[in-house]
Design a protein that fits this description.
Elements: E1 3-8, H1 18-33, E2 38-43, H2 54-60, H3 69-74, H4 76-87, E3 90-94, H5 104-113, E4 120-122, E5 131-133, E6 139-145, H6 164-170, E7 181-186, H7 194-216, H8 219-222
Parallel strand pairs: 1-2, 1-3, 3-6, 6-7
Antiparallel strand pairs: 4-5
Helix pairs in contact: 1-7
Bound molecules: flavin mononucleotide (FMN).
Cofactor: FMN
Keywords: Flavoprotein, FMN, NAD, Oxidoreductase
Function: Quinone reductase that provides resistance to thiol-specific stress caused by electrophilic quinones. Also exhibits azoreductase activity. Catalyzes the reductive cleavage of the azo bond in aromatic azo compounds to the corresponding amines.
Length: about 230
């Protein structure tokens, strides 16, 4: 059975959010293609996770068998969020661009997912690259929206895109290789012109196509459909 983890990070509610519209479309189409998909939803836009603090870091870097009760309690939400990621074959992430980067809610979620001993190991014997991911084999569908345009590689605002590179840099914590990140982005939202309308249509088409591809796959291994 395929499991989908749906994450929404927009601070806007369903009727005013383009990324929620896309995550909803992806989920609906995926279920249509494969009704057996199990869906886990995590709405960090409406229900943000608290920022990590010195107590969280102290707890996370204390070995499990040496943790005091307060440490276990402090990590409970992080453990639950990681369990959701670990259970997923596909992660669909509604990720609006806020101030050229990711919404604080999404960054807060990633701060809870990146955990030593759970999503990565750290060993200086590995030399200059001591971090090794623990989770593997997942697909990530990033459904974004931007008010401006031209953030793609080679575009006029590519140098201002602090969203897609940041998600890609952290994807190994979710068990996602670079080749398994599939990004669709609506642009021109602030212009509200024909370019925006065309962009919405193209993004919906691309989202449907991705959902159909993943819907035809079955189980963790089959979900690793080659990009293209
Ligand atoms: C707080 C905030 C910051 C934003 N910053 C940017 C930005 O830096 N660049 C950009 O192109 N659009 C920016 N936008 C526009 C959003 O990316 C756009 O409205 C998008 O559709 C938001 O996603 P949503 O519709 O799912 O809420 C910003 C919007 C908000 C609310």
């Amino acid at each position: 059975m395929t499991t989908l983890l749906r994450i929404d990070a927009s601070a806007q509610q369903q009727d005013r959010s383009l990324t929620r519209m896309l995550t909803n479309l992806f989920t609906t189409e995926l279920l249509q293609a494969n009704p057996d998909v199990k869906v886990i939803t995590r709405d960090i836009g409406q229900d943000p996770v608290p920022a990590i603090d010195h107590r969280f870091i102290h707890a996370a870097f204390t070995p499990p068998d040496a943790r005091e009760d307060w440490m276990t309690d402090r990590l409970a939400l992080s453990d639950a969020l990681i369990d959701e990621v670990a259970a997923a074959d596909i992660i669909v992430m509604g990720a609006p661009m806020y101030n050229y980067g990711m919404p604080a809610a999404l960054k807060g979620w990633i701060d809870h997912i990146a955990r030593i001993g759970r999503t990565f190991s750290f060993d200086l014997a590995r030399g200059d690259f001591p971090i090794e991911p623990i989770l593997k084999g997942k697909q990530l569908v990033v459904l974004s929206s931007r008010g401006e345009f031209g953030f793609e590689p080679g575009g006029p605002r590519a140098h201002m895109n602090a969203l897609d590179p940041a998600i890609a840099a952290c994807a190994h914590y979710f068990g996602v290789d670079a080749a398994n990140i599939h990004t669709v982005a609506i642009e021109y939202q602030e212009f509200k012109d024909e370019r925006h309308e065309r962009s919405v249509i193209a993004a919906k088409d691309a989202t449907r196509a991705l959902a159909r591809r993943f819907g035809q796959a079955r189980g963790t291994n089959d979900a690793c459909v080659p990009a293209g």
